[in-house]
Amino acid sequence: MGQGGAQRRGNCGVMRRGFLLGKFMPPHAGHMALIRAARALVDELTVLVCWLPDDPIAGEVRLAWMRDLLPDCRVLGHGQVVPQAPGDSADFWPIWRGIVAAAHPESIDYLFAGEDYGAELAAQVGGLFVPLGGRVLGLVDDPLSGLSGSGVRADPAAHWAYLPKPVQAHYRRTICLHGAESTGKTTLAAALAAETGAMTVGEYGRSHCEVHKAPLTRDDLLLIGRAQQAMIAAAAEWAGPLLLTDTDALMTAAWCEMLLGERPQELMQAPKADLYLLLEPDLPWIDDGTRFFADPADRHKFARIVAQVLDDAAVPFVRIAGQGPERLAAARAAIGALND
């Protein structure tokens, strides 16, 4: 049964097959509740994911999401350019009868939909129309029935609790604070987290150095980079729309170049953030017991390496300068522009 498991039969020994279609752009809790209810009513459920080439979320992406979310259903895709409403073409219904027949060559027992169009679709392709969900009843203020793909796309953060994990991952933005020593990364991360409620991933390298208190080797630095990326990936599963990271593997690559004169490709090729905030070295250097470069010349050299790593990695970044509120305001503006 495609992505589904072995066939089973209903209480009366009759195989019941159901069908539904949609754009699922993106899938949300309203879609999932409807589909789960439909699946409970049949032995086999076919879900057809439809898209056009210029959709704001690629159809192939949505098809992959739905297959991941519905392992016990037959999930198929249709991406050809066809009429989208009866008024678009006199051949609208013959075309869509053919599309449904290709996706579901077996007879359809139940045609599921959460909107009134399901009645005519059922009449055209066969099957009893089963109008699931509160939208058919006009419950537009209900949290599930009132959800819409356009509303989610306009403000994913406002609908976060109603988005499946793959959709959350699509909309989540990771912001990495990047900069030389004593440029206020940790302080700025805390201030941004307090404002936004974002989860923050701390700097593994600091913990490593405080525990081991020995000169850093290449193996140490590779471990630091790997551990940092592992912490980021683990935290992302639980993060909201925004994830703040106090450094990542690109910063470790800069440390490697400064300390060892090389830049390991493993660190340069690690997963990247959506935006890097490059903190300028315009704050006083403070010795916290784990810092290296008190000499102004060394600090300047390290700052150049830190910036060059971002250029060479071809990642988006914004330079952040100023003291206190000015620094925070610049960071806030940079993050805000990311979502515009």
Automatic annotation (TrEMBL):
Q: Which InterPro entries match?
A: Cyt_trans-like (IPR004821), NAD_biosynth-regulator (IPR052735), NadR/Ttd14_AAA_dom (IPR038727), P-loop_NTPase (IPR027417), Rossmann-like_a/b/a_fold (IPR014729)
Highest taxon in the source lineage = Bacteria
The alphabetical list of record keywords is:
Nucleotidyltransferase, Transferase
Q: Which GO terms describe its molecular function?
A: nucleotidyltransferase activity
Where does the NadR/Ttd14 AAA domain lie? 175-327
Which Pfam families does the record cross-reference, listed alphabetically? AAA_28
Return the SUPFAM superfamilies for the record. Nucleotidylyl transferase (SSF52374), P-loop containing nucleoside triphosphate hydrolases (SSF52540)
- Its name, as the record gives it, is NadR type nicotinamide-nucleotide adenylyltransferase
Question: Which species expresses this protein natively?
Answer: Erythrobacter ramosus
